[in-house]
Amino acid sequence: AKKSTSGSSAYGGLFGYSAGTVKNLKIEDIEIISENTKWSYVGAVTGVNIGTIENCYVSGTVKNSGIEIAAYTGGIAGQMQKGKISKCVSFANVYNARGELYTGGIVGYIEKGTVSECAVYSSIFANGKDTTMDSYTGGICGFSREGAEYTDCLFAGGIIAEKCANAYLGGVSGKLIGGKVERTVATGSIMPSEIISHTYIGG
Description:
Layout: E1 2-4, E2 9-12, E3 15-18, E4 21-35, E5 39-43, E6 46-49, E7 52-65, E8 70-74, E9 77-80, E10 84-86, E11 89-97, E12 100-104, E13 107-116, E14 119-120, E15 123-127, E16 135-138, E17 141-151, E18 154-155, E19 158-162, E20 166-170, E21 173-176, E22 180-182, E23 185-186, E24 189-193, E25 198-202
Parallel strand pairs: 1-4, 2-5, 3-6, 4-7, 5-8, 6-9, 7-10, 7-11, 8-12, 9-13, 10-13, 11-14, 11-15, 12-16, 13-17, 14-18, 15-19, 16-20, 17-21, 17-22, 18-23, 19-24, 20-25
């Protein structure tokens, strides 16, 4: 277990920040928890990825809680600024609570980079705690910008989002500004609850 509870920013994972190559890694029953910070980046493998993550398996729990401004939470990585994640499988349950929430089965937020041949079989929870901030929750990624690409991925878990101002929920990505999605399947469930303003759902 790894727990962070102080400072303005927290980076949680087996690696807080990864710029190299992580491959052929199996992480079982991990518990990563970040609490009471302004910004938090949490994933089972890394908080922030700008390198390559390949052929990794994760199970356990990844959690952000009580984040004041923004929480980036994913089964593999909290945020990806560039690079790639490929051939990874996540059975890690992902929890995000309070603040603006970016929550994904593989990665919470992608600026640019590729996710390929990845599968998610876990539960993804986003709880806005009745704040005025929005929530972006996806089976693969919570929020995707123009540089994101998804190929040959599978989401077969469950998404639950509650008490958010606006909830963006997707089987692949909660919000997809641009980028590309090819040969990707979402068969999991999506369940919004007690959304304050608007709910946007896409399979």
